[in-house]
Amino acid sequence: MILVIGGAGYIGSHMVKQLVQKGEQVVVFDNFSTGHRQAIVGGIIEQGDLLDPDSLHRVFRRYPIECVMHFAALIFAGESMREPARYYQNNVLGCWHLLEAMRVHQVQQIIFSSTAAVYGEPEQLPISEEHPLKPTSPYGETKRVMESMLHWYGMAYGIRAIALRYFNAAGADPDGELGEDHRPEEHLIPLVLFAAMGKRDHIAIFGSDYDTPDGTCIRDYIHVSDLCEAHYLALQRLRAGAPSTVYNLGNGQGYSVREVIRAAEQVVGKSIPVRYAPRRAGDPARLVASAEKARRELGWQPRYPALTTMIGHAYRWFLRHPDGYTH
Description:
By secondary structure, the protein is of the alpha/beta class. The protein is built from ten helices and 13 strands.
């Protein structure tokens, strides 16, 4: 069985659906602080919290867990600058509780959702897995620490881990069943679409004086379903006995904030109101991935690389679910 930690969240719920479609047995572990029960479309649901070790041990005793997928970290760099204590508690302490439960119950495989934020301000582009890790936010730093924990638990206890360093997850389930519903929402593409739909009166651009062609931050976007496919390929690699490693997941092409807004205008067929705001602390100017290692070793090939496709899938879900998930 596959234990999906944070399986009621944005990426976790898409992962659960894909695993179930592929015939896997799934247990979803979530505290529902940010996730949604309605987003879980299969598997067994176990409510619990990474900060409550007893609830973790209960799940490991109850089910024959083969591999863990960890999607339960707090994820917003800006928020982490304001509230680093929450990020160290949930991300680092929660990960330690999980690894301890795995050690005690002799579960030897984990796939970990990491982030491009571990790299900080890039020294070269595109960013490869060998790039120095110099995070510029507590969020990125907690993910770096979590990766380090995985390494040392592997050395000491034989736990094999694949860490997947995402760039910017985007889009929604191509079937239209699942989507992105953070509360509050801080990701660019949903906020741009909310402005297009009249749910916000504008989209804010944080900083227009970066060292980029149009002065706005550049990011590498990847469809959420393509992320999940990479997780499944990583699962197969662990099952085949592969050692611990890390992979970048991205399309290798960056888009500026202004380019994202223009693509969204193309999808929705109208202009989107924009306002400029000061830079946010901890935002690097450019983050663009080299995912060659994942393509080479996992055989991973994104199915939905076009930015307009990601935005179009997200827009369709928001039109069908104007209030997000209802529970």
